[in-house]
Amino acid sequence: MDQLLRHHGDVDAAPGLLDFAVNVRNSRPPAWLRARLAAALDELGSYPSAAQDAAARTAVAARHGRDPAEVLVLSGVAEGFALLPALAPRLAAVVHPSFTEPEVALRQAGLPVRRVLTDAEYRLQPDWVPGEADLVVLGNPTNPTSVLHPARTVRALSRPGRVLVVDEAFGDAVPGEHESLAADRETPGLVVFRSLTKIWALPGLRAGYALGAPELLARLAAPRPPWPVGTLVLEAVQACSTPVAVAEAAAAADQITQYRDWMVRQLGALPGVAVHQPAAAPFLLLRVPDGRRVRAALAEAGIAVRRGDTFPGLTADHLRVSVRHPEIAATLVDGLRAALAG
Q1: What is the pLDDT of residues 234-292, one digit of tens each?
Q2: Which domains occur in the chain, in start order?
Q3: Euclidean distance between CA atoms 162 and 86, whole angstroms
Q4: CB 73 within 8 A of CB 235
Q5: What angle do helix axes 50-64 and 231-239 make, rounded to 10 degrees?
Q6: Cβ within 8 Å of residue 265, ≥6 positions away
């Protein structure tokens, strides 16, 4: 298996570099969330309880208009990907370019995987997915292209006997969460993964959840050990699902959109830089000439960007850059201008 599939942005974000490689909004969680997690520290002397798990699932269910039985709390969406082999597909189809861990997990389990590339504009073409695939995995919005597929197009992948897994790790960064299937209880075989990592700056905690029919979630969870998620994860999931937290995330999504629009204008004005549009996520996909040299020049200037050639369907001339406040992003714009001129 290609080891480049295990490459992630945290590898590119070497210590001391200004980080445009990792898609986490802030350097730490908001004060109110840190305080709530700190208040739960005294509970670490006990095993996570069924009551705590139920409270977290109930909060998520209320947030998405679902039943608590349709919620599975995860140790990050990465755990959800690691559990995919439990579905035992005869043929898995993974849509690319996209986050690579689902393919890694399936291939490591010895399961057959078919890569399905999007079109030239990175749009999903449901007819290109093999009809015999009984597991289909895709991201929406998609990492690293920042493409948001229409919900109706994603639903078109559903068919009897197929599990459709939609990675919505960046779903809460989309204003209004339009095109999200998190509240969809009708599409057969649908499982949606959601993450707390990006908006809430919790990559060190590993918190997320899956949404789907109870029988599907039971199949997914079958290999899990006892107490698969910790007390602080359950607390964070509950805290970030309250109406107040959801409203805060919605305001953050609006802010991200403003910052992204600024970056699109500035980066798109640089000679030789192509910014893929439309973009819907808290990152942008760029295409630059002589990408390896440009990325090295940026690193030399103290700026980290995510290499694109580890994503199937992209090349060394592709770079992914995180959306940041214009005062910070101006450094990237200036650094890229200098790198291109060098």
Answers
A1: 999 999 999 999 999 999 999 999 999 999 999 999 999 999 999 999 999 999 999 99
A2: 3-27+246-341 (3.90.1150.10), 31-243 (3.40.640.10)
A3: 14
A4: no
A5: 30
A6: none
Residue 91 CA to residue 108 CA, distance in Å, equals 14
Q: What is the pTM of this model?
A: 0.96
User: Residue 32 contacts by C-beta under 8 Å, 6 or more apart in sequence?
Assistant: none
d(CA 306, CA 99): 13
Element (H, E) at 151: helix 151-155
Q: What is the pLDDT of residue 29?
A: 96
How many residues are listed for the chain in this entry? 342
pLDDT tier at 11 (50, 70, 90 boundaries)? confident
| Edge-to-edge strands, sheet with 71-74 | 71-74, 208-212, 190-195, 163-168, 135-139, 92-96, 113-117
Q: What backbone phi and psi angles, to 5 degrees, belong to 68? A: -55, -30
Give the DSSP H/E element, type plus range, for residue 166.
strand 163-168
Backbone angles phi, psi at 161, to 5 degrees: 80, 0
- Among all chains, which residue has been given the structure tokens 């009551």? 51
Strands 92-96, 135-139: pairing is parallel
Helix (H, G, I), strand (E, B) or coil at 33: helix
CA distance 153 to 156: 5
CA contacts within 13 A on the Cβ side of 144: 29
DSSP string over 56-97: HHHHHHHHHT--GGGEEEESSHHHHHHTGGGG--SSEEEEES
The pLDDT of residue 283 = 98
Segment 17-41 shows an average pLDDT of 95
